[in-house]
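Tutorial, part two.
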Amino acid sequence: MGQRPPSLQLPSLTDTQQIVSLDDFSGKVVYLDFWASWCGPCRVSLPALNRIYAELQSQGLVVVAVNVDAETEDAQAFLARYPVDYEVLLDPEGNSPADFEILGMPTAFYIDRNGVVRGVHTGFRKNDEQKVRATLMELLNE
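Running the prediction step on this input gives:
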């Protein structure tokens, strides 16, 4: 925390030929979320993040979700049930969680407009939506 995150360049779920980097979102507040289809709390977090994204994207919020399933079909099946409007990246080799020192799913990073990690959110419960929204609004208002 208080530092720039590790470099992240991964293919997009919607176009696997497109490589997306965190640097692509310079100047934006980024909520970087790591998730997997086998993660129970992700069934709560992804719909909540989609609501937050819809509400705050016009203020400069970007939500980037990194899926770590070994099979892309597992991520696609999950998203068919829990659709999202934000960017989903694929990491089937699962290298990025180690780079970010993630211990469990979901884990998310709050990244400010200067590209600095300002906080980490681990796990997700129904009442976490308000807390995440409030933290993101603070970063957007800086």
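Residues 42-56 form the longest helix (15 residues). In part three we will examine how such features are distributed along the chain.
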